[in-house]
Structure formats: C-alpha cells, structure tokens
Amino acid sequence: MLWLIIGIFLFLIIFLWVVKNSGSADSSPYQLKGVLFTPAERSFLGVLNSVLKDDVHIMGKVRVADVITPSKSRNKSN
C-alpha cells in the first residue's frame, strides 16, 4: 500500500512538472487562418457534389499554408 501511495505521489509530481513546462497555445510559432473556402468556392463545391453520383465526391485541395501561417515575429531568426 505504501508503494502505491509513493507511486501516485511521484506520478502527480511528474504530471505537474510536465504541465508547467509545456508551452501554451500562445507560444506557438503558427496562427490558424480563417475559413478554407470563400463562400463562392464553397457554393461551387456544393453544386459539383450535387450533380455527381452518390459514390463520387469532389474534395478541395488544401495546403498546409491554407490552414496555418507563421506568427509575426520581431526578428528574422524566429
């Protein structure tokens, strides 16, 4: 029983240390962008999908650059 209590205590200490030292979402070097498609692109994609058979779907090509962008930093090295 003593070993169980010691194990739980060590687990809590390690867990709290990891949480404390992990970076927050604000420290990320990237920022999320807004929507992937403009309203016109979304409408066009819906029209294309509506005229196709049920087993065929049109998928939009999405680049990583369409989803995230580097955060603005004060120096070029970051």
Short description:
The protein has helices at 2-21, 39-51, 64-67; strands at 30-32, 68-70. By secondary structure, it is mostly helical. It has a two-stranded antiparallel sheet.
Q: What can you see in these coordinates?
A:
By secondary structure, the protein is mainly α. The protein has one domain. The chain has three helices and two strands, in the order H-E-H-H-E. The model has no long low-confidence stretch (mean pLDDT 79).
N/C terminus separation: 50 Å
What is the element string, with H for helices and E for strands? HEHHE
Number of helical segments with 4 or more residues: 3
**Overall pLDDT confidence:** 79
Number of strand elements:
2
Helix content: 40-55%
Which spans of ≥5 residues are poorly predicted at pLDDT below 50? none
Shape type: elongated
How many domains make up the 3D coordinates?
1
Major sheet strand order:
1-2
Task: Output the structural class.
Answer: mainly alpha
Estimate the strand proportion: 5-15%
Largest sheet: 2 strands, antiparallel
**Rg for CA atoms:** 23 Å
